[in-house]
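@channel sequence for tomorrow's demo:
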Amino acid sequence: MSTGKIFKQNRGATSSPKSRILGLATLLGLVTLFVFAFFLTDPDVRLHPITGDEIGQFDAVRLLYLHVPMAIIGPYIAPLVGAVASVGYLIKRTQWWDVTAHAAIEVGTIFCGLVLLTGSIWGRPVWNTWWEWGDVRLMTTLILFLMLLGYLALRRVVPDGQKQARRSAIVAIVAAINLPIINRSVEWWESRTLHQKSTLSELKIEDLTFFTLMMGIVVFLMLFTWLVLHRFRLGWLEKESLEQDALTAIAERRSEATTNEEETL
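C-alpha cells (generated this afternoon):
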C-alpha cells in the first residue's frame, strides 16, 4: 500500500496502532533505563594503583548511559539516514525520500544538541571544564550540529518545493562527510582531545554497567524511530496540505476567470 493511500485512510493522524505500541514500549524502556542508570548501577570508583586514593568518574558516570546512546544516534545514525534519503531524492525525485531526510535530520539535530549539552555537564566534574575548544571531537561534532541547523534553516528560506528539496539534499550529503572525521578524530589527533578511545571495542565495561549501556542504546534507537515516524507523517501531511491549497487556489482563479468572461459576454 502506498504512503498516500495510508494517509487517505487515516487522514490527519500521525499515529497508527503499531506506532502507539512502539511509543508505549519506548516510554517503558526510558523509565526502566532511568531506574537502572541512576539507582541500580554503581558509581565509577577505582583505587589509584600507587597512592590508593579513590579515583574515577563517581556518580557522573550515570550520565553516560544517556550521553553515549544519543552520541550514536545524533552525530551518526540520524545524519547518515538523512544523507542516504537525500541521495535517494536526487536519484528518484520523489516526495517520500525528501520527507524522510527532513524527518531524520530534524530529530537528529535535537539529539546532536543534547549530546553537546550532556557532554558538557559530564565534562565539568570529570574534566574540570564545561567545554574545551581544542578538543577535536567536540569541535567536529559542533560543526556537524551547525550544518544540521543550516539544513533546517535552508528548508525555511527556500520557498520552491523542488529547489528546497534539491538544495537541502546537497547540504545533507556534505554534512555526512563529517561523520567519519568525528568517529576517527580520537585516533587521528590523540594529542588534541580529552576523549578516550572506545571502551566498547576494547570491552572495558562489563556486568550491569554493560547491560545498562546496551539497554540505553536500544531504548534511544526506539525513541529515534518513533520520533522520525511521527515527524515523517507530519511532514507528509504538510506537503499534502500545501498541494491541496495550491489546487484550491488554481480552481478559484479558474472560476473567477470563467465568471469574468461570462460577465464580459
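heads up for whoever presents: Helices lie at 3-9, 17-40, 64-92, 95-127, 136-157, 161-176, 178-188, 207-264.
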